[in-house]
Amino acid sequence: MPNTTNTPLPRQVADSYVEAFTRLDPITGTYLGIPECGPKLPDFSPAGQRALADLARTTLEELAEAEARPGADGEAERRCARLLRERLTAELAVHDAGEHLRTVSNIHSPLHSVREVFALMPVETGDDWSVIAQRLRAVPAALDGYRASLAEGMDRGLPGGPRQVATVLGQLEQWIGTDGGWFGEFTAAGPKELQEELTEAAAVATGALAVLRDWLRDVYAPAVEGAPEVVGRERYARWSRYWNGTDLDLDEAYAYGWAEYHRLLGEMRKEAEKILPGARTPWEALAHLDVHGAHIEGVEETRVWLQELMDEAIEALDGTHFELAERVRRVESRIAPPGGAAAPYYSQPSEDFSRPGRTWLPTMGETRFPVYDLVSTWYHEGVPGHHLQLAQWVHVADRLSRYQATIGIVSANCEGWALYAERLMDELGFLTDPERRLGYLDAQMMRATRVIIDIGMHLELEIPEHSPFHPGERWTPELAQEFFGLHSGRPADFVESELVRYLGMPAQAIGYKLGERAWLKGREAARAAHGEAFDAKSWHMAALSQGSLGLDDLVAELSAL
Questions:
Q1: Stretch 79-95: mean pLDDT, rounded?
Q2: DSSP letters along 206-249, please?
Q3: What mean pLDDT do residues 458-481 have?
Q4: Does residue 198 sit in the same domain as residue 297?
Q5: Residue 528 domain-assigned?
Q6: Are 434 and 463 contained in the same domain?
Q7: Helix or strand run (H / E) with residue 360
Q8: What Pfam families does the database record attribute to this sequence (predicted)?
Q9: Number of domains in the chain
Q10: In the structure, how many helices (H) and strands (E) does the chain have?
């Protein structure tokens, strides 16, 4: 028999993996709040990516030994082991297929990670800014590694999508800018006594952006011209496992998207009639609200308004539908750095909560924002959406593992909770105003539309006969963009940004609606099991304290609470 006396338990294996991973990926270390990671950036080259894969393989071997140790069959150990194995196996499948050699996206790539991490770094002291200067000087090597991976992908016949490349080139132009570019603007807020050092370091980082731009424009873009924009069923299934933590029946999911489309369209028509009687479509009523509805004027005024919206939600929900620790109650509204994708987003608090959870609003150059488009979105990004889940994970990390509370995240679990949170606020009566409720339904429709067009265009499925749009034809990116535009209250630049996102991140966008379905199934099963004794507040807090789960396990775990 093997000697298991000194073998760690699964949660110890998982936490050792986090420590090793953050040494290889200092950007993740900054998200977690590890000071030692501050001056560094990851090696995005093929060798750096192989090191991450080797770590995953070694960890899986250690996990197999850990599961044979006495005590490894307890619930906490079992749940952590299952997540760790599923996540690392899914990540290795993506790596082994060479997907890391073709990562070009308008929202999720090494390039975007390099820029975004600076917005999360501490800026309170001169020492903080010195660390920022060191990391700025590391940008050229990081982007050289990224370029080397794309070049290897080119050589191996693994191209990124032409539309993604064109979009990223546009983003790079904006980040490079004039008068120092984005990095120059960022470092201008530093202390006067360090401005010479910071200006020089920012110029080094901006120069690296220019080198990458020139290579993408002159070498990579011509090489990938004409490459397929869609990924096909095999690649899509691989990415679906990665983003959703399950092997989905993609045809059933596509049919579910259409069923939700028809249901939501009926609800939207009822609300639209209250706003603009006789409106031909709900989006005509939303266009009316763009001009005549409630608005917030000014970027800073909008940031403050969103902060107040989240603060009000916390006051209303804490003690009634949730039980929140004081540090979880803190969340900040921020304006996103310019030049990114159009969608709002959330960043998780550091492990010690010294950096709170934050929501980020991309303004896309606008200064006037309709309320109908903000309220449900901030219930999603902030409270009770992403912030309550991800901050609660960090809060209970000592009962879970660092891995379950941080880097073991399954996208569909988190996005599903956040969409469930929007629905919960509707159920609780926070969206009785017709403007706000139509905005909520429009956001729900966007998530149903994502399921339809993301699966439809990547698998080139047939548009069903019950569709009011091109029935019997096969989906293409062009048809997907047109369909999305016809069924969204959002501006054309948002629609285009979203389509590029779906092409560059196949199967990620379907997790919102499919994840919400899993959360609703789990809640209804728990309600049926408990009957009149079902307590929503207790169930919500137990559900939010589980840590990460893939959709394979989420319904079963929620049902048993």
A1: 97
A2: HHHHHHHHHHIIIIIHHHHTT--SS-HHHHHHHHHHHHHSS---
A3: 97
A4: no
A5: no
A6: yes
A7: strand 357-361
A8: DUF885
A9: 2
A10: 25, 5
Find how far residue 424's CA is from the centre of its chain. 20
CA distance 152 to 175: 26
- Give dist(CA 446, CA 484) in Å, integer: 8
> What is the DSSP code (8-state) at residue 463?
P
- CB 327 within 8 Å of CB 348: no
The terminus-to-terminus CA distance of the chain in angstroms comes to 37
Q: What is the DSSP string of 176-193?
A: H-STTHHHHHHHTTS-GG
Backbone angles phi, psi at 367, to 5 degrees: -125, 0
Q: Are residues 213 and 262 in the same domain?
A: no
**pLDDT value at 198 more than 70:** yes
What are 331's strand-pairing partners? 357
**150-159, 336-345, 397-406, 471-480: least confidently modelled range:** 336-345
DSSP secondary structure code for residue 280 in this structure: S
* Residue 205 burial by Cβ neighbours in a 10 Å radius (0-12, 13-18, 19+): buried
- Does 473 score more than 90 pLDDT? yes
Q: Do 198 and 343 sit in the same domain of this protein?
A: no
In 460-550, where does DSSP find H-type helix?
477-486, 492-504, 511-530, 536-544
Reading the block at residue 529, the tokens are 């099991």
Percentage of residues of the chain with pLDDT beyond 90: 94
C-alpha 547, offset from chain centre = 16
Q: Are residues 224 and 298 in the same domain?
A: no
pLDDT number for residue 491: 85
Determine phi and psi for 410, rounding to 5 degrees: -105, 120
Cis ω before 384 (30° cut-off from 0): yes
φ/ψ of 245, rounded to 5, equals 70, 30
Task: Examine the pLDDT at 178 and tell me if it is beyond 60.
Answer: yes
Tokens of 394: 């960090």
pLDDT of residue 5: 56
DSSP 547: -
Beta bridge partners of 370: 295
Q: Does some domain include residue 526?
A: no
Enumerate residues 6+ apart whose C-beta is below 8 A from 353.
327, 330, 391, 394
Note whether 30 and 133 are same-domain residues.
Answer: yes
N residues, the chain: 561
Give tens-digit pLDDT for 241-258. 999 999 999 999 999 999
Phi–psi pair at 444, nearest 5 degrees: -65, -40
Domain that holds residue 462: 239-511
- Band (514; pLDDT cuts 50, 70, 90): very high
Residue with tokens 């010690």: 352
The pLDDT value recorded for residue 489 is: 79
- Domain annotation covers residue 547: no
Residue with tokens 């496992």: 241
Residues 526-548 have pLDDT tens digits of 999 999 999 999 999 999 999 99
Same-domain pairing of 391 and 423: yes
CA–CA separation, 550 and 544 (whole Å): 14
